[in-house]
Every structure is written in C-alpha cells, then in structure tokens.
C-alpha cells in the first residue's frame, strides 16, 4: 500500500487499452524457452508472463522480465539452486486478456511451471486461474488489483489486504500520502498542479492525487486537457501563472513529454515535475530531448533502490549482469523478484514444495532483496489501517549524472501518513 502504486499503473493500462484490440491466440514465437545449457539434474522450471508486444509498444513492459532473466542467468552460471538449473519459460501475452489467459494455460497447465516470477501484464486476466492452481506468482508488478485480490499472488511491493477474491477490503484499495509529505517537508512545496486527460481513468487518478495533496494541506491547481487534441501549452501557462511548486500528472509517457515541452516553452519553472517508476529509465534524454529545463526538474518516487546508485554492491551486481544495456528501474525490480524466488527455494532445499516457498514469501519477516527493496511484507488484515508508517525511495534527474538519489538511505526516509481509499 505505497502511494497508490496500483492506481498509477491502472491509468497507463486504461489509456493504452482505448486503442487496443481484444487480442487473439498467441503464435508459437511468443512462447520461448531461455536457451541456457542443460544440466544433469532436473531443472527447476519458472515462467515469466510479459506484455512485450502490448499496445504500449517498445520496451514498456519488458523491464522486469529482462532483470529476472539476467538474475537467473548468473545464478545458473554459479551452479543454480542446490545444483539445479532454473529453466525460464517466457510468454508474451500481447497486452490482451485473451493472450494473458493463453499464457497462463501454457505455462501453468501445459508446461507445469513451479512458479511465476516478475509477471508484468497489462491485463492480468489469468490471475484467478493462477490462484486456483496454487502456483505462487512472486514479485509481479501490480499494474492492476490482482496482487491485492488473490491468494498465492505476491506482488513486488507487498500487501496488507485479505486477498480473498475481492480487491482490497470490500472492493477498496488504500494508498498513502508519503510522497506529498516528502516534498512538503524537504522542498517546502505548498502548491501542486495535477494534469490529466478528459478520460475516465485519467480523471479518476487525478482526483486521487488531488485528494492526497489536499489531505497534506496543499493548494491544488487542476488542469485537464483533451485526450485527442491536448492543449498542453495552455495548461502549462496556467500552472505557471498560479505559482505551482510541483507538477503531478495522470498522463502516459508521450503526454508527459509534451507537457514538459510546453512548460519549457512558456517558461514554467517548478521545484519538481514528479513522475513514477515506469519513467525511471535511461530513456529520459530521448523522451524529454526538447525540454531541458523540465527534464532536469524530473523527480521520481518508488519502493526500490535507485538503479544508478552504484555505491551499493547489489546495484553494481545488477548493472554488471545487465551487460551495459540501457537500464530501467523495473529491470532492477525484476532482478529483485528473481532473487526473492531464489532465496525462498534455497530455504526449502530439503522440502522444495510450493507450500514451503509460499511459507517463506508470506512469512512475517519483511523481505528486502539485500537492500534493493524497501521492506516487503504480506499480511492479511481484516480492516484497512487508518495510518501507516511508509518509506520511499526518491531520485531526481541530472543531465550528465543520470538519476541522483535523494534523502538516502531510503529506509530512513519515512513518514506516518493517512491511508486513503480508492476503487481500482
């Protein structure tokens, strides 16, 4: 229940699905096996479902998969898990509900994977099938509400919800105001602009942001642009005139880039243009190439250690394994998901069953992936907490330096904040 993480991802999903088809059966090329060398011992088979060819395009949803595969490759090179190689089977669901269900059938029913790891699905329609099969899904990205709904599913950020088949508590999820508290306390921010499309999911998420900001005492400037023909220049001029310190948004990546261009064009200077973990990537110079001032005002908040924090040995190990390719925060979280599964399997070497692995993942002790994650815990509280102490990782973009960690260590950057309800 960090700051409306699931709601952030639902916005992107809803925006891209406006133009998406319902999907079709997957061609054989979309179901691939990691070409690792065979070993004498029977391999431990895991599956990764990713919306690699979703309507979003590019590499929007492949980061967690790539990070997990990199981890398993170096694990196998070091001898695997008690001498057993991890055989990774990937499936591209195409970003559709039909494709996702097909991937679940192939991996769970046909290939009999032991577990799923680092799932990143635009539409996780197969989640109830995974849950009914009793297959642990470990370290997935909570793009929708599945990880706060079903047993046997363990998203990368944890959950306190009952997970009894209904999202959250009686259909409501909860998120905190820690990011807004952070900017108020550390940057002295008092006025925030919230920019959204005149589209249902975008507008709904903007209302959630506005609710949290007002709870923290901010003055809020609401800006809404047309989804088909957005006038970002007018929105940028207005937020400038109203003296916004911060800019939050309920936009897709392209919309964010256009907003930043408009802000530079009208001379809007803000303390922070706050984005989310999906935009925490090496692609910033390309995505924001026409807006240098806004680009260098980009801040991001999340629940994992900055992948540019090269002083940390675990980050260095991740970066080495990625082999010099462009990096993204979801890759690091996929790496951490694979580590989580591996640590669970190693703890169960004498009795490697799904029940034992879930016992490790769902234990009361928080999991941190050796400091790569803020403490992750799975509880089942009968009622949602009214307040919660929550920590966050913060970074800002600097040309020449990349993403620079702020307020380190992230485990001490914590606030006790109210938990606000929303419906997924």
Automatic annotation (TrEMBL):
Record key words, sorted: Signal
Q: Which CDD domains match?
A: PBP1_ABC_ligand_binding-like
Q: Which PROSITE patterns match?
A: PROKAR_LIPOPROTEIN
Classification via InterPro entries:
Leu-bd (IPR028081), Peripla_BP_I (IPR028082)
Question: Which ranges carry the Leucine-binding protein domain?
Answer: 43-357
Top-rank lineage group of the source organism? Bacteria
Keyword Nucleotide-binding included in the entry's annotation: no
- Give the protein family: Belongs to the leucine-binding protein family.
Q: Which PANTHER family match?
A: BLR6548 PROTEIN
**Name of the protein:** ABC transporter substrate-binding protein
The organism encoding this protein is Streptomyces beijiangensis
